[in-house]
Amino acid sequence: MSQDHSYRCLEVPGDAPFALGPSKGKGWGAFATRRIERGTLILREKPLFVIQKAHDEITEQDIWTAFHQLQPKEKKQFLCLRDNDSRPFLRIIDAFAENSFSISAHPPTRGIFLLQSRFDHSCIPNSKIPATGGQSISRFATRTIDAGEEITFCYPTAFHCKTRDERHRELRFICHCKACLPGTPFQQLSDMRRTLIRGLQYLTLGHDFNGQRQTSASPIIFNSELKQAAEDFSIPISSRLIYNLLFMVLMEEEGLLDDFIIRRMTPSIRMTTTKFQTESNVRIARLAMAQETWLGKFCVAFMLHGRRDVADDAIAEQLRMLHGLSV
Ligand SMILES: [Zn+2]
Questions:
Q1: pLDDT tens, position by position, 181-217
Q2: How far is the CA of 108 from the centre of ligand 1 (A)?
Q3: Which of 15, 144, 222, 301 minimizes the number of CB atoms within 10 Å of its CB?
Q4: Domain check: are 101 and 239 in the same one?
Q5: C-alpha of residue 174 to centroid of ligand 1, in Å
Q6: Is 2 a residue whose pLDDT tops 70?
Q7: How far apart are the C-alpha atoms of 159 and 145, rounded to whole Å?
Q8: Is residue 180 part of a domain?
Q9: Across residues 282-294, what is the average pLDDT?
């Protein structure tokens, strides 16, 4: 049955390092046809068409209008799209919803990507589409992928700090990735790690992943003094450094620490180490950052635990001004 599946008609570039094929329990997916090194570009794809509107304002008519402007060959490609049960979509708006990506927030624009939409979900993915400008979207390997391995990515955002149950409430299917297989030590640790990651983010940013303060219905930081310190940015610099490094260690243990996160986090971690003014703290922070691994950096930085710095009050004030909390 898979031999005559309509996805066999989708045009995959000749030099692409993947092929489409059936994925056990997940419909169809994309599989590496050769070893793909970490950081390698897997696919850059232009949209078949775009609609310049907010996602929830796009109508069936908008999509039909765009469809009718396509070349016959492009229409044929679009009509290859199938739902999760490999049946043709009953409504064109569902085909659009399941196969489109946001390519711009200002103005809000979504595009249809026939190939990028073929990659299945995993909560521990091996590829990522970083935010990029322009209409094309590009997918990169976040770790080395072996030939024959399925290439996956994480559909929703902020899954790195949500437990299995929280993730499954958002997904419309059961995920069977390593972090979701119940009853395994990895899965139990995964829930703990992701809960800790959420807390560490709250302590350093002063808010939850969605920019909101915690509510009594879903507490994140249970200690009210610590929660208050996070929200008014009076967490000492030593704790900020320790929390940031522990975040990196936990992300690495979880299999989620890719080069994009390292490039985003490293400057702010280095910046934190330059804030110390107390000489003994400066020495420990330098020694920590000289270690090769994130675990090594964290273990040395933990010597700073509970230590105040003469710069603490000034840094807290700067952060409060930055966030408009200062009078
Ligand atoms: Zn999963």
A1: 999 999 999 999 999 999 999 999 999 998 888 887 7
A2: 29
A3: 15
A4: no
A5: 8
A6: no
A7: 21
A8: no
A9: 97
The predicted structure's pLDDT at residue 239: 97
Tell me the C-alpha distance between 76 and 117, whole Å: 17
Range in 9-13, 58-62, 84-88, 102-106 the model is least confident about: 84-88
pLDDT exceeds 90 at position 156: no
Same-domain status, 270 and 136: no
For residue 273, the enclosing domain spans 185-322
Q: How far is the CA of 205 from the centre of ligand 1 (A)?
A: 26
Residues 245 and 314 both lie in one domain: yes
Whole-number Å distance, alpha carbon 287 to ligand 1 midpoint, is 37
Residue 214 forms part of a structural domain: yes
Q: How far is the CA of 265 from the centre of ligand 1 (A)?
A: 24
Phi, psi dihedral angles at 90 (to 5 degrees): -80, -30
Are 197 and 317 members of one domain? yes
How many structural domains compose the chain?
2
Measured in Å, residue 44 CA sits from the centre of ligand 1 at: 25
User: Taking 70 as the threshold, does the pLDDT of residue 129 lie above it?
Assistant: yes
User: Do 207 and 137 fall into the same domain?
Assistant: no
